[in-house]
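User: Last request for today: this protein with citrulline, please.
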Amino acid sequence: MNIAEPLFQYAIVRQPGPDALHGLTSADLGIPGYELLLEQHAAYVAALKSLGLNVIELEALPGYPDAYFVEDVAVVLPEVAVLTRPGAVERRGEVLHMVNVIGRYRSLVSIVTPGTLDGGDVLVVDKHIMVGLSDRTNAEGARQLELALSPFGYTTTPIPVGDGLHFKSSVNHVGGRTLLVTTAFADHPALTAYDRIVVADEDAYAANTLFINGTLIMPAGFAAVRNQLDVLNRPIITLDTSEMRKMDGGLTCLSLRF
Ligand code: CIR
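Assistant: Here's the final one, the structure of the complex with citrulline:
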């Protein structure tokens, strides 16, 4: 299997607003410190810029405490962008605020009721798309995504997520034919075409590592995973994400790359 790696030019991010402390979360890690959240977000934006991306920085969106997790509201591919219909009702209004932003770069299609889809459940590896079926993404959302993208030559595999918020909480592409996965996905039949690096259960959060134009961005504090990733011979940037983690967020959620 020959896998083309993406070459991103742009990233969209959104500033966390003061209400970000009161977004959705299942983590029992306390309320984020707002100043520290802003600092960590700024370091993330700086890291994207250091990789040569043009970063489109959106202002905070009052009334939508989770809106800085921009990944969930769209799936942006070279050919087209799909606006999602987030599974969490509280987040649906975020999508409208992305129409004009992404519409400048791509033609748009939308997931519609009764489909639900969060971008965090969508892992694109070259022309293959794995779609997590989760509390946020239903089978109808996955079906609509497949219908929208198959004309462009994408194949789609729906995969139940089990534990964890999103599919990319557990599985991410780290370049070439390699995925970084939690133990739950180590031997998953849908992933056997890929090489898999399996993180230990206590390091599961670090499975949410981001691969951008040949560089890996991983969360700080996971030395064992760093050692595992070193074998890939890619530059690695580590970023502190403690405050986003309190809101169930990680590195992929914070941007839309395209
Ligand atoms: C939510 O529950 O929607 C946010 N607090 C976290 C979203 C994280 N997004 C992602 O993993 N793509």
